[in-house]
Amino acid sequence: MVRITEQLIRKRSEHNELIIGTLEELSLHQEDIECIEHIGSWCRELKILFLQSNLISRIENVHKLKKLEYLNLAVNNIERIENLEGLESLNKLDLTLNFVGELTSVETLRGNYNLRELYLTGNPCTDYAGYRDYVICALPQLESLDGVEITRTDRLKASKDFRANRARIVQLELKHRIDRDEQKVRVEESLRVQEESVKDLDEEQRATQFWQQKSEHCPETRIMMAKYAKKGRERPGAGVGDGEKVPQRTLKLFADCGRPYSLNEAKIKFEFLDEDDRYELNLHIYKFLDTSCIEVDAQPNYIRATIKGKVFQLALKDEIKTDESKCKRSTTTGQMLIVMPKLNPQNISFREPEVYSKVRRDAAAKTDLKGTVDYKNIIKQGGKSAEINEDEIPPLI
């Protein structure tokens, strides 16, 4: 059984400088955790909690998380919805692919007035006749169920036969409970027989026989699968031939011809803007990560940022002026903006300075250009004054 320890939480809080008291997001997925503990006391500021793909059988010890907005418990062994009344800010609850058969337990969520999204896809209760209508009427604050928007028409339709629908679902729950009790006995006997049949085999042969046999879809089987999967990972040389070593992946930044690769080993979000005269790169650095843990290297044809040893590199189409490139970081969001002027800007439009434009507009305003132009009388016609003096005309060359 994997326990939730302080060391495990700090390991998953690198983005918060290993401080768990102010942690707002925590991911403990795929850890084979069987029990929720300590999180409510150690991480009171949590807003997002990921606990999917574990072996949790009961929802508990989360009532102190008053600021929690999103709880993900998908792919666990939960059979009943409970102990969530204290989550005042809960907005989204994901219970996909669990074993919830007691559908009426959703009524415990009526006090969670901020709940807007609920996911129960893959649970036995979704096979009950009238499942969706019942949940819609039982939780009037919901806006979406299993990813499908709830309309006003859906609510009106569900409210008409709510009592009869609920009575029918209670009967289906009783039948599911009887089937579940029988399944527990049947699976327990099957596991006992299997253990007797493989007691003389080594670990590898036991695992091979387990993975080849048919099994029922239930929490007990999921626990056994996790057990054998863990043994397979711990077995020396698992997945590698005899005498072979596990190849270590090497980070390659450049092609054989010298062309830089673009890669995001740090797995951070970013925005890249290609202007006519410059490149702009906005990196979503973790807010509480100290700037001393970040190194930025601007080269003529690529930009590289090393974040706690993780490389983010972006190849550039045009060369940049490395000596004029600037890097700034926001003290509020933690994001880092890198501005890189291009060496040979393209399609640059030079606009007239505002001072000259103002002078030209003032001069035009003083000139009276109103009315039509009398182009016929620009040169006076007739009379002696209009005669051409040929002596004044210069000779043609």
Short description:
The protein has 397 residues and is α/β, with parallel strands linked by helices. The protein is 26% helix and 15% strand.
For the terminal residues, how far apart are their CA atoms? 110 Å
Estimated structural class: alpha/beta
Please report which band the strand proportion falls in: under 5%, 5-15%, 15-25%, 25-35%, 35-45% or over 45%: 15-25%
Overall mean confidence score, pLDDT? 85
Helix content: 25-40%
The major β-sheet equals: 7 strands, mixed
User: Strand-and-helix sequence, N→C?
Assistant: HEHEEEEHEEHHHHEEEEEEEEH
Keywords: Cell projection, Cilium, Cytoplasm, Leucine-rich repeat, Repeat
InterPro entries: CS_DNAAF11_C (IPR056496), Leu-rich_rpt (IPR001611), LRR_dom_sf (IPR032675)
Family: Belongs to the tilB family.
Organism: Culex pipiens pipiens (Northern house mosquito)
